Amino acid sequence: MTLKDLRLVDLRKEFASRDPSGPRAVAVSGVSLDVEKGQLVTLLGPSGCGKTTLLRMIAGFEEPTGGDIYFGERRVNDDPPNARDAAMVFQSYAIFPHLNVFENVAFGLRLRRVPAAQLRERVGRALDITGLAGLAGRSPEQLSGGQQQRVALARCIVMEPRLLLFDEPLSNLDAKLREQMRVEIRELQQRVGITTVYVTHDQVEAMSISDLIVIMNAGAVEQIGRPDEIYARPRSRFVADFLGKANFVQARVIDATHVDISGTALEVRPHERAAGEMVTVVLRPEALAVGREAGMLRGTVRRVMFLGSIAEYLAEVPGVGELLVDHANPAAGTLLGVGEPVYLTPAPACATVL
C-alpha cells in the first residue's frame, strides 16, 4: 500500500454553543481523505462549509473533537503547529512590515538557528524559485500585492515542509493578478513537489490548479475527485450547481444511455436508473449547440449576454423550461436577439443523470 503524505480519518470538529444548554455546532463532520505525495488537493465550498476549519486542524491551530490526522505514519493530533512539518500561507500574507524581503523569508530559519551560509543559500534558492531574487532588499510597502504574496510563499518554501497549506491566498488580489498568481502557484508547486492542501471558494481557481478537489457542504464531504471527473459526473445537485454552471432538466429514463426530455430522446452518460423512472439530468451550458434553423429542441431567446469569448443565452424551451447556453466565439457570427427563435442540440453523451 502506498504511504500517504496526509491522511484524515473520520475527522470531526464541534464548537460549544453560547448557550450552555444548547446543541453544539458541527463545523466538520466525519471527513476522511488520503493525499499522495506531491499532490495539490483543494478544499472547495461555500462560506461556512468547514473547509478553513479543516485546514486549521491539519495545521494544528484547531484541536479535533474526534478522528485522526496522520502525516505519513505519524499521528499528529497532539503535536503543536511548530512540530507538524507544515507551513501555511495565510489570506492576509502576514509578512513582517519592519523586515525586508530577505529577512522575512529568513525569519523561520533564524528561529531554527540554521548556520549563516546554509541560511543564505536556502533563502536565495527560495527567492529564485518565487521570482524575488532582485527584490531581497526591499521593504514590504515597496511591493505589489502579488509580490507580497510571493514573499509569503517563499517564507514557507524555505522551511522545506512536508505539507504546504494555503488559506484563500489570492482573495485580496484583483481578478487579472489572481489568474496570474494561481498559474504561478501551480507551476511552483509542481516544480518543488511539495504536497499541498489549498482552500478556496473560487470554482475556476480550484479546477485550474488541483489534482484533486474535495467539495464540502455543511461540514461534510459531498464529492472527491479530479476536476474533470467532478465537473463531468457530479454525484449531487449541490455539486453540479456549485462547480460551474448547470441546467437541471426533468426526464424519463429510456435505457442505460438514453432519457426522454419532453418527447425528445437524449443520449446521456451510462447510469443505473430503471427504465421509466423520472430523473434529474445535468446539462452543462457549453454542451448545447445553438442553431437558427434546425436542432433537437426549439425555444425562444429570453436573454443575451456578450462576454467576449462566449455569448450567454437564456432560452425558454416549451415542456423543458429555461436553459442556459454558452455559445463559443460569438464574434465570428451575428448574435441572436431577445425574442428570436433558437434551436438547441445537446452534444451526445454529455449529460449526466443524478
From TrEMBL:
Cross-referenced SMART domains: AAA
GO CC terms: ATP-binding cassette (ABC) transporter complex, substrate-binding subunit-containing
Q: Which residues form the ABC transporter domain?
A: 6-243
Signal peptide positions are: none
Q: Which UniProt keywords apply?
A: ATP-binding, Cell membrane, Membrane, Nucleotide-binding, Transport
Is Transport a UniProt keyword of this protein? yes
Name assigned to this protein: Polyamine ABC transporter ATP-binding protein
Q: Which domain of life is it from?
A: Bacteria
One matching Pfam family is ABC_tran
